[in-house]
Amino acid sequence: MTDQADKPAVTVKPPTPENMWAEISVAVNYLTRFSLPFKNELRSSLISRSMVWFPIIGAAIGLAGASIDWIATLMRMPGVITATAAVVGMLFITRALHEEEFANLIDAYGKSVDSEANHVGWLKEERSVRYGTLGIILIIILKIGAIASLADNTLVFQTLIVASSWSRALMVVAAAWLRPIDGDPVAEHFQQPPALRVAVAVGVAMIIAYMALDEDTATVLIAGSISGLIVALIGANHLRGYTGALLGTLQQVVEVTIFGIILAIQ
After folding, report:
1. Nearest to residue 48, comparing CAs of 226, 171, 135?
2. Mean per-residue pLDDT for 53-78?
């Protein structure tokens, strides 16, 4: 009886170095264009647990974009050019993954709005520009304008790191909350991450945000969370679960929301 009473109710085993490297590799390979090798065949449970690294990789992506902006500023480039360089740099690092997923979801909603899938107006003319293309143009313009309007390079670093990290942490939350849709490669790949990994991902993203923003952390994270919740609710209502397109859209919307909030309070 004594031995059983001394046993903890819940045991948490730290990942082995091999499993940790595999988790990091999965997250890096998905979120960036870099391809890290795997030593062994990946288990589905390990893939879902890899989402805990999303906020850290997101922060690294934001740091890279801010560094590009800073280097361009040292070259005495105007703000709109430095901001464009930062956005293009992040698009290159991420393969424009989330922008493409955002475009896919916008296209799907655009087609549902049109009375006929491929025709517009009484002339029944063929649509040549997709809703997703227009959506990507809009989101990139918003990002460039927001970064160019930030007061200084320090604020650019703070904004890009926090926006990139928190938006990807909320991807983990959405994946844990919503049902993965069958047939979607992203949903079938990651499934639903364990609750402990979700909590760690959110906690790490909050620490990153606090270290970057200090007193404005709560305002920024709450605003980003509200916009992410709206996107997740759309997924819950329309898709009855989550897909890669929904996660990408959530990331983009949360990121732009954080840009706007920091611009408002700077």
Report:
1. 171
2. 97
Structural domain contains residue 4: no
Looking at the structure of the chain, the number of domains it has is 1
> Tens digits of per-residue pLDDT, 154-198?
999 999 999 999 999 999 999 999 999 999 999 999 999 999 999
Q: Please indicate, yes or no, if residue 128 is contained in any of the structural domains.
A: yes
Amino acid sitting at position 208: I
- The predicted structure's pLDDT at residue 4: 53
Task: Please name which of 241, 181, 179, 203 lies closest in space to residue 54, comparing C-alpha atoms.
Answer: 203
pLDDT of residue 42: 74
- Nearest CA among 74, 37, 33 for reference residue 57: 33
pLDDT score at 215 = 84
Give the burial class of 10: count Cβ atoms within 10 A of its Cβ; 0-12 exposed, 13-18 middle, 19 or more buried: exposed
Domain ranges, residue 95: 51-265
Three state DSSP letters for 152-211: CHHHHHHHHHHHHHHHHHHHHHHHHHCCECCCCHHHHHHCCCCHHHHHHHHHHHHHHHHH
Residue 180: strand pairing partners: 242
pTM beyond 0.85, yes or no: yes
The reply to whether 27 falls in a domain is: no
pLDDT score, position 1: 47
pLDDT at residue 113 in the model: 61
What are the residues facing 119 on neighbouring strands?
116, 126
Is residue 41 situated within a structural domain? no
Angstrom distance (rounded) from CA 14 to CA 35 = 25
Q: How many whole angstroms separate alpha carbon 30 and alpha carbon 97?
A: 9
Between CA 159 and CA 163, with CA 160 as vertex, the angle to 5 degrees is 80
